[in-house]
Design brief:
By secondary structure, the chain is an all-alpha fold. Helix content is 75%, strand content 0%.
Length: 228
């Protein structure tokens, strides 16, 4: 029993290696240093995501105000319409790293949830290294000149009274840069999980079916009247 508990604890906590495992010792300290960088990245993107998410409220207010003015006074503005699109784009792009931190991006849970934790860790690692990082790099590489040309031309909307286009185009390179930095953080954390320095978040993750059942239960409780 003691041996089993000791073995379980070693999978969750990093401890100094024995002299015969000098390479693991140095690797552990290296990852510990990188984990400090990862925590800083997570904190920054969480801060950005939480504040930028409030733009949804502003977009709703603008949309409602524009609709009321159009119906009551028969007056509308393309600038209001385009501002809603820009605000939504800002939320979508700048909150993507925050969503990645919390594991809110879409996964094929029906398959992924049935696999062993080690396999799921490798899937996450390969997905981040071979797909997410190159995806971000390519889009950043192509979006920078896309923005520069628009900015130098002071590109305006094709619609009368619309907004300038270059601020919206700048969101692409900014959002993808933040997502790339967050991808680096996720790779660090996944490497730490595979080395046993961090607990595996997949160990207690709910499947898509379990999440649906939980949401249905909450909805049933919300609509069921309380008995006197």
């Amino acid at each position: 029993m003691r041996h089993r508990l000791k073995k379980s604890a070693c999978r969750l906590l990093w401890v100094p290696a024995e002299p015969s495992n000098a390479g693991a010792h140095s690797g552990g300290w290296g990852l510990q240093s990188l984990l400090k960088l990862s925590r800083a990245i997570d904190a920054f993107n969480t801060f950005v995501g939480r504040w930028v998410s409030w733009l949804i409220v502003i977009a709703v207010i603008i949309s409602a105000t524009n609709a009321v003015i159009r119906k009551v006074f028969d007056v509308s503005s393309n600038a209001y319409l385009e501002l809603q699109w820009v605000l939504f784009s800002a939320v979508f792009l700048l909150c993507a790293p925050w969503a990645l931190i919390n594991g809110e991006h879409i996964k094929i849970d029906i398959i992924n949830h049935t696999l062993p934790l080690k396999v799921r860790s490798w899937i996450d690692m390969i997905g981040h290294v071979l797909f997410l990082v190159p995806f971000c790099v390519i889009l950043i590489w192509t979006s920078v000149p896309f923005f520069i040309v628009s900015y130098n031309q002071n590109e305006q909307s094709f619609s009368a009274g619309g907004l300038p286009q270059w601020p919206a185009k700048s969101l692409i390179m900014i959002g993808l840069t933040l997502l790339l930095v967050q991808a680096v953080s996720e790779i660090i954390k996944r490497a730490a999980v595979m080395k046993g320095l961090l607990p595996d978040p997949n160990a207690h993750a709910l499947s898509a079916h379990e999440i649906a059942e939980l949401e249905a239960l909450k909805l049933a409780q919300a609509i069921t009247p309380e008995k006197p």
